[in-house]
Design a protein that fits this description.
Low-confidence stretches: none
Number of strands: 9
Helix content: under 10%
Radius of gyration: 15 Å
Order of helices and strands: EEEEEEEEE
CATH topology: Jelly Rolls
Number of helices: 0
């Protein structure tokens, strides 16, 4: 019997935002996924324009409030992306029900801050 795998690629971008821990990737139901890979891109031409991304996971049946300490747990360290660069993060979703991500920047940023997300089952 063949081992069939599937993959879904999603892309998006941050809307204009400032402040800390702004939703970048809304909660995604991953209970049927094996692995999730994230790629984040910061288009600012200056290295001092730094994005800090936090990827979160949740075990509960409902998504709750992304990033809330009582509901979500950060997966791994902060993903720091300076201007004109990108970062890649891959996680196993075994046992997770939900994932999502927030972004914080050293400056107000616009829609050029993009992400790609590969869901693998």
């Amino acid at each position: 019997m063949a081992n069939f795998k599937s993959a879904i690629l999603m892309t998006g971008s941050a809307t204009t935002a400032s402040g800390q821990d702004v939703e970048l990737i809304a909660p995604i139901d991953v209970q049927n996924e094996d692995r999730i890979s994230f790629q984040f891109y910061n288009p600012n031409g200056t290295a001092g324009h730094i994005d800090t991304i936090k990827v979160y996971g949740r075990l509960a049946a409902t998504s709750g409030t992304l990033g809330a300490a009582a509901e979500w747990t950060q997966i791994g360290d902060d993903v720091v992306v300076s201007g004109s660069s990108s970062a890649l993060k891959s996680i196993s979703t075994t046992g997770l029900m939900w994932v999502g991500a927030t972004i914080s920047g050293t400056t107000t940023f616009g829609a050029g801050h993009t992400y790609a997300l590969l869901r693998q089952a």
